[in-house]
Amino acid sequence: MSDDAQNDPPKGATSRRALMLGAVGASAIVSIRPALAQTAASVVTCEIPVPDPGRAGNYIAADGSLVPAGTHGAFAPAGKAFKGEDVRIALGGGQLPGTSYEQSRAYTNYIRRLQSGTSGFTCFASLQMPRG
Amino acid sequence: MPDRLYRMERPENLRVAHLDSFTAVYHRNSGITHLITAPAPEILATLGEAGMTFTALRETLASAYELGDLDDAALAARLDELVAAGLVSTA
Amino acid sequence: MRHVFSVRIGPVGFRIGSDWRAPIAQLESLYADYPAPRDGVPDFNVRLFAARPWRRFMRPAVMIGGDFVLPEAAPLPLAQGLLAAEMGMNLQMALGQRRFLLLHASVVERDGRALLMTGISGAGKSTLAALLGARGWRLMGDEFALVDPESGAIHAFPRLVSLKNEAIGVVEAGVPGGRFGPLLAGTPKGDIRHLVPEAAALAAMDKPAEPALILFPRFGFDPAERDVLPSEVFVRLTQASTNYVAIGERGFDALTRIVKTVPARAIDYPDTDSAIAQVEALWAAL
Questions:
Q1: Which positions in chain A touch C241 (Cβ < 8 Å)?
Q2: Comparing C54 with C25, which gets the higher pLDDT?
Q3: How many CA atoms lie within 13 A of B43 on its CB side?
Q4: Which residues in chain A touch residue B41, judged by CB atoms under 8 angstroms apart?
Q5: Which ranges constitute the DSSP H helices of C97-141?
Q6: pLDDT tens across A70-120, in order?
Q7: Interface pTM (ipTM) of the complex?
Q8: What is chain B's alpha carbon radius of gyration, rounded to the nearest angstrom?
Q9: Can you say whether the dihedral through the CA atoms of C217, C222, C227, C233 is positive or negative?
Q10: Which residues in chain C have Cβ-Cβ distances shorter than 8 Å to A52?
């Protein structure tokens, strides 16, 4: 390995370093997912999580901005990511599946505000951009 | 599972940078970057290129580290993860 | 393309062709003090075109094309043609840039060292960069930080600063004498107005800088600061990069070098005056 520093304990040391194996359901690996993985993929099957997994603790206000969890009048995160096709319909005035009218509007506003670098930006950018 | 040999991916296929409690690993064949944390780096170092069976790995880790309540299922989960990421191969 | 405009921004040259004169006229005016592409050869082409011949005249709608495109992107009204050109250039960089590692961040420089500010939209990256640029810092860019994978240096990419909604008023007040483009109201991202970087920033656009501090600003909170560990900086910067994966091992080497050598802080701030004070204090403490 072209390693910068070693983590091995000294062999034969009288006290051993503790090592946690973790739970079965936990993970010791974070794999970097490309933000533009969906550029070449079908628009219909690409997905947009609401909100971006990096901001999972936040709620979504009516105007689509992220606010602290539990903020009055704001909506909890959507339980699942939305398919590109559903988002396209919502951007055109329809409603996201499984959401109330206000929820759908808040989520749609969140999606409109997506910026380059967040998950789902490419999916969003490859959809019809909203006019209003 | 008992007889399978688990080996670390060949060093020339990896580029490694130690950051903090996480180590960044670039897997050349897949082009994917993984950030790994304990016990993954320790498992990789223990397996080495020569590789080990599950039983040998468990025993080597138990003698080198204070593992507390050693859980075979947890160790298997950590190994499976490393295999899925391409950082460990099964002979 | 009957109307053409070419410009160099830092190390990247663009050629923009348009079916309409108006956006080109605006680009010529706002980018008047920028150089031309090196040897006249652009790195990327952007096309502003009408989807159908009659759409040049009837409810004219600007489609964004170029060397790199996003499928099924909707057109913009002609009044927002300048925005279409800017988005077209962003798109070429986001999808086509391979020489530099791109980070979605604003960059300002002082004494040869660069401050990078990165984070989600609305965090204040462009606003703070514009204000610092008028307070003794050199603006190197408000959208993309270009990291040279071989040297680790940041190369300037000082496009027009893109200000949205409330930020417009803040920067108009904070940069008196600043040169602004037209107010583009009602765009998909709200109201937008562009600020031309100061002459000194344009004159120095070929001078790279060593990254010295990375900030993750968050607007609308009481002042607070915390250190950000290298592993967290690494993950957040990959999320802020459009080409980290595409440039492969060079990206890995560039990014690991940055997170191991450049300190990073997350700062919360309630208003821009507070943010600027926090930035100055953190910089002085380096």
A1: 35, 117
A2: C25
A3: 31
A4: 7
A5: 125-133
A6: 888 899 888 778 877 788 778 777 888 888 888 888 888 887 776 544 556
A7: 0.91
A8: 13
A9: negative
A10: 120
CA distance C187 to chain A (A): 7
Determine contact: B26 vs chain C, CB below 8 A. Answer: yes
Q: What is the pTM of this model?
A: 0.78
d(CA A70, CA A53): 18
Tell me which of A26-35, B47-56, C115-124 is least confident.
A26-35
Q: List the chains bordering chain B where 3 or more Cβ pairs fall under 8 Å.
A: A, C
Say yes or no: B68 contacts chain C, CB-CB below 8 A: no
CB contact under 8 A, B66 and A1: no
The pLDDT tens digits for C90-128 are 999 988 999 999 999 999 999 999 999 998 777 799 999
For residue C257 the two structure tokens come to: 């070098």
Does A53 contact chain C (CB < 8 Å)?
Answer: no
Q: Nearest chain C residue to B32 by CA: give it.
A: C245
Domains of chain C: 3-96 (no CATH), 101-284 (3.40.50)
Instruction: Measure the CA–CA gap between C104 and A31, rounded to whole angstroms.
Output: 20
Q: Spell out which residues of chain C touch residue A116, defining contact as CB-CB under 8 Å.
A: 90, 94, 104, 242
Give the single-character DSSP code of A75: B
Q: Do A31 and B45 touch (CB under 8 A)?
A: no
Enumerate residues 6+ apart whose C-beta is below 8 A from C110: C136, C137, C138, C283
Contacts of B17 in chain A (CB under 8 A): 4
- How many CA within 13 A on the CB side of residue C52? 4
Mean pLDDT over the full length of chain C: 94
Distance from C-alpha of A103 to C-alpha of A99, rounded to nearest angstrom: 6
Q: Are C140 and C238 in contact (CB under 8 A)?
A: no
CB A127 within 8 A of CB A87: yes
Residue B1 pLDDT > 60: no
The C-alpha atoms of residue C125 and residue C132 are separated, in whole angstroms, by 11
Report which of A31, B82, A53 is spatially closest to residue C252, judged by C-alpha positions: A31
Q: What secondary structure letter does DSSP report for C209? A: B
